[in-house]
# Entry
Amino acid sequence: MGAYIVRRLLQSVIVVIGVTLVSFLALQAGGDPTYLFVSERASLEEIEAARQALGFDRPLHVQYLSFVGDLTRGDFGQSLSYRQPAMEIVLEALPATIELTLFAMICALLLAIPLGVLAAINRGTAWDGSITTMSMLGQSIPSFWMGIMMILFFGLYIRLFPISGHVPFLAPLMAGDFGTAFANLPRTIYHLVLPGIAVGTYSLARNTRLVRSSLLEVLEQDYVRTARSKGLPEMRVLVHHALRNAWLPVVTIIGLEFGFLLGGVVVVETVFSYPGIGRLLFAAINQRDIPLVQAGVILLAGIFTLLNLVVDLVYVRLDPRVKLAGGRG
Amino acid sequence: MKLSTPTACAAVAGLLGAVVLTGCTERSEDTIVVGLSADITTFEPGMISSRDNANIARHIFASLFTLTADGEHVPELAHTLEISDDGTAYVYTLSEGLTCHDGESLTAEDVAYTFNRIADPANRFTGNTPGFVFTSIGFESAEALDDLRVQINIAQKNPIAFGLMTEVYIHCKDAYEAMSLDDAASNPIGSGAYRLASWTRGSEVVLEKVRDLGNFQRVVWRIIPEASTRTAELIAGNVDIITNVVPEQIETIDGSGRAHVQVVRGTRRMYLGFNLSDEHARMPGGDAIQDPAVRRALQYAVDVPTICRQLLSGECERATGLVNPPNDNPNLTPYPYDAELAERLLDEAGWPRGDDGMRFAIRMQAGQGRYVNDVNVVLAIRQYLQDVGLDIDLELMEWASVYTPLLRERSMGPLFFLGTGGGLWSPIYDMTDMAQVGSGTNYTHWSDPRWFDRWPELVNVGSPEEQRSIINEMLQVFYDDGPWLHLYFQPDFYGVSSRVSWEARRDEHVEVFEAALK
# Structure
């Protein structure tokens, strides 16, 4: 297994470098970023001076190779707009996004599993129909629209939850300031409710359908029939025999979904003025702050590939039939 | 222990209730909250370039003189200014007893340090001060004459140097010498009425009062990029002032009973430019607009007041030139909308309608998403021009990456839509867009000697009356034969809570020194 992990980690490095190249080229394709860093009244000479100061006067391949060279020394470069180490800024924004993503995912899972089970064991009934319809709706509604609707209803009309903002929990926790972290916790959750729902609705809908279909498939297997014919109570059949096997596809999706949500919260973070990594990267892309975008992309790509690896390893633990390629399982 | 369903539901509801109750906090009466649309990136005085960023910095850093809402420069850190006879040395005398936020005395040496530090190429600053102010005034050096007197040296006499110098944020030498550039960007040690208490990137900036200027102890600047979210926060009472209200939400805010919208005629001059470069003269329609008679005819073709009323949510008076009222030429009256006259003048200029009903084809370029309702305004202008027989090939472009590079190269057009920032404190400041034929802001390549040959005279003239007379003559030329199809001064929309009294300024400066609770 050790060799497998090392090989996968090496592959991850190649993936991350590929991602940085693609994002670098995509940002460069948008034109010369210098214009965004100078006064609107700046003359051509002033623009040229700024171009040199920012390093955009060098050929593209020199800019990129210099960036990769710095990367190997652990230097992610300076943000052009903040004038501070790019990775430091990204890491500063990451805890807020992890809070949002975890909150959304936990809420989605806590609801998706019982709803999926309920729909599966009541297949073809009104329960099943309602849950399936709601799931389809949940997958169809754009998150930004849902966010705005929730702001209007819960934030403005009944004034139950805050419209925007964020109160940090993870950041003080990681800094060892447990007092502040736990004092903040209720307000953190309070601020997470609306964006969490906006982010988590799609995940809830998809996981509900996944649990339902996976469980339906398992319920028709021979070993479930055998368990029933042995006279086991239905609940025991469901929990110990069916659900355990229905987990496999769900676990795969959950792992990947965390990464998906992490990178996909841009719109919701913007609507709710939530200071996370999505909004930071969105602003950085608009500002063509290439080092900042690269640092964010590397971090997200790294987390995503790592999650992939973790999912594969968990899969092996859950299903003894699965063997790792090249490993001994 | 097993929980029954009702007990579990009650527990969840209780928890939710506790979260809601704990989360709700009362607004403090000594705090004012401003909602901005754009994120801020730095507190480094040499790097600040956006208006939102400058608005916050203005509360942290003081200037030698400051600009009032009426466009008047009044003393701030300095109380007097003497200018040498040749106009190249500005000697400011500072008030006594000034300090920076860390308690360090603020002397002439600190002011000189501020200017020299921002200009130092080793720091590679690219903000508004080094990138525009210093190059415009030809800054050369600054030196302390004694504890209270500082001399700023510029290359040559410049009638707007004094006004531009008020945009330099003064900071203290010892504090900034002890800081790295990274530290200076996020931990400003200013000289203004408020100090930075906290900055949560992408979320909010909190300032605390240190000098007795301003009615609120704390100012919170919240970054709320989404317009509808800003409006919701204002109506919900969580924010006192918001910037950049979109016109479609004015009715909602005014109808809420909790806030209202203040509309001010901004200083940004919106116009349709005629690119008169040789390169554009060879393009279709480019030859036609070389003729001042054609340009003048087209002034009558666009109904600007209707555009304002229908697309910008208010009445406006059409601009007569590039200078903001009240500094404009009072003898000029805005061109009226008269499509028939426009058609007749185009006929007389030698561009009659052809068999297809069109006079000439021409390309029109515009960026989108930069100005208030810009796309609809551009579409309306195209329609008006088509109505008098121009076959307009409209190209709407993404602002930052596509239109801005064209702008900097002065190669958009032959027709192009643009708005450029202006001011209230000097007509010459507004006119400097066209200081030279080759100026970076003369996007039109206009080269009329009746305008450009007057500049040396304008700069060196003795009395204000003579200067005013020259300005009026130049503005008359610009009105008659200039390279702009005059549109309007862009209105700015601010949402203001009923809780506070605050007046929006025309120059896009958001200052809360005079804001107060009602």
In short: Chain A is about 75% helix and 0% strand. Chain A touches chain B through 59 residues (CB under 8 Å). Chain A has a mean pLDDT of 83. Residues 178-219 of chain A form the longest helix (42 residues).
